[in-house]
Amino acid sequence: MIMQHWPLWDKLDAFDGAEQEYRTGEWRGKRALYLNMDGKPIMHQQELPCDCFRIKAEVAIPEQVGFIGLVFGGMDKDNYELIYLAPEEIQYDPIMNGSMTWQIYNGSAYQHPLSLPSGEWVELAVEVHGRTAAVYLNDESEPRLVIHNLQHGGAGRRVGVWSYLPAYVRNLSVHELPVSSTASDASEASHTASSLASGTIDANNASFIANWQVSCPFPAGTEPMDTQLEWHSAVIEENGTLNLNRLFRATPGSAIRVAAELVVDSSGEYSASFGYSDHLRLWINGEEVYTGKWLWNPPVSDGRIRPDHAAVVLQLQEGRHEIRAEITNYESFGWGLSMQTTRRL
Length: 345
Fold this sequence. Notes:
With 345 residues, this protein is mainly beta. It folds into 2 domains: 3-176, Exo-inulinase, domain 1 (Jelly Rolls); 200-343, Sandwich (Jelly Rolls), CATH 2.60.120.260. It is built from 1 helix and 28 strands. It is elongated.
């Protein structure tokens, strides 16, 4: 079995990301690596030779606000799996094209509430078995959070650490684990993805709009013709969200257009509910029915994408209807849209 250990406080020659702000420090009597990062990773240069492993480290957040996490499944500095601790939660946050995606991956499947005393040393561990990951704290035998479908799908094998704002970390280690069967999890994830792609998943009798045409990004405030833009086909994620971070780098001030078809089998009154980040304009059959902004601005708003964030009521005739939207990015992280429709009784 492979086992690797890095104290971290002595040297980082084998890690990329040394341009970030770090130094040897001490916190509550323990030598450690002090990080004051802006959400970038320090990743080991070599890939792991195994798919099943336990990665762990001792971590501490010295102030009331801070984030410290473990990196695994890394392909490069812009694409990797991340699970981090904050004083109030554990969060799964796969980094895609350099962007954090916690606004897309939210709720109990990706987050777990926490009450972490400020400054306390905690052992954070993640056990990875193929496309699943379980998160443990200290010597607990039961995981606090289980991720059943890692979003990068095992495409990378680099590991490391990550922080946003001041944090301490020490004794990063990786232990190979025996290979265990994750066929049921993989099958379930595959079935979910397939069902979403075909638009057959219903949540509380609400059908997600699953298949979209997505334009390339363009500067917000400009009005290029559709024929001037390059278009791609895209399918929603397992949670019903059209994840633009997976497709493009989220650059503040950029916008994209999306289009989809809604087929109605009987005339009547329908509700279209949706969530988005960061700014949305929405048209149904050429009529603008909604415009709004949803950003990370606590305590007023948290910017997380939820399909029931807003809704419009539509009178629709039997047949095909066109949905179009323009989604603008302001924050350089979570960027997307989730929409579902329901027949009103």
